[in-house]
Amino acid sequence: MSTYAIGDVHGCHAEFVTLLEQLSFDPRRDTLWLVGDLVNRGPDSLACLREAERLGSAVQCVLGNHDFHLLVAARGGGKLKKNDSLKAVLEAPDRERLLDWLQSRPLAVRHDAWLMTHAGLLPQWGLDQVETLSQEVQAALTGEQSGDFLRQLYGNHPDRWDDALDGMERLRCVVNVLTRMRFIDAEGRLDFTANKGMDSAPAGFAPWFQFPRDDDPQLLFGHWAALEGRTPDARVRVNALDTGCAWGGALTALDLATGERIRVPGRASAGVAR
């Protein structure tokens, strides 16, 4: 029995299947952790959704910002962008089943000392807290008012967590931290302007993993392809898994038991911003 964590698939179905073959992945005995952003940018988001859903309980998947983008476009009145590759999902005969599956995913998956989120973990949040906050968002996503939640989701405010936040501001902040975070300041304020490599940090900001924590979890995240799987000067135990498959990089799997990384090269470059 093995557990593998795989970085942002981004619609790269051929590479996804090749990687599973290289891992000799067997859903009857193995477990697959997917770090979010299953869809968009790559050539076959529909096949990626079908593949993940087909694997059933063998898959633990968290939502990424591109997964939310699909849900907002499909069920929250949002519009697709020029570079999106989601039309096939929206026109698929099984779209409702696939969207239901995606919409029921959490924002955090935890097992023992391991924690997986799409973008990372705010240093001010403990493991129990992030699980609780993930459950709050999941309840909003699967509740009767989920359409209203998706329609109000987008926005950059509040940009700093406060335990007193409530309502939509609280939920939006949680989603932004767990699916969009890259650079923060010492107080945990998020920057939404920089999305490139380490040298693009605004003054007073640094990558979230360069801030210390009071506990010592094993953190898994994706989202930040420009890091190319590296986390220099990290002050927490962390594994960056987005290695830019959709941009001609690679799709990466991490064996949680051994720490081994297995990669397959991306087959084409999407040629769009990461």
Describe the fold and architecture.
Belongs to the Ap4A hydrolase family. Helix content is 30%, strand content 15%. It has 274 residues and is α/β, with parallel strands linked by helices. It has a single domain, classed as Metallo-dependent phosphatases (Purple Acid Phosphatase, chain A, domain 2), CATH 3.60.21. Strands 3-2-1-10-11 form a 5-stranded mixed β-sheet, with helices on one face. Strands 4-5-8-9 form a 4-stranded mixed β-sheet, with no helix packed on it. The longest helix has 16 residues, at 127-142.
Helix % is: 25-40%
Number-wise, the strands total: 11
Q: CATH-wise, what's the superfamily? A: Metallo-dependent phosphatases
Mean of pLDDT = 96
Q: Structural class, please?
A: alpha/beta
CATH topology: Purple Acid Phosphatase, chain A, domain 2
Order of helices and strands: EHEHEHHHEEHHHEEEEEE
Number of domains: 1
Could you give a quick summary of the protein structure above?
The chain is an alpha/beta fold and 274 residues long.
Give keywords:
disordered C terminus, Purple Acid Phosphatase, chain A, domain 2, Metallo-depent_PP-like, 5-stranded mixed beta sheet, 274 residues, alpha/beta, 4-stranded mixed beta sheet, globular
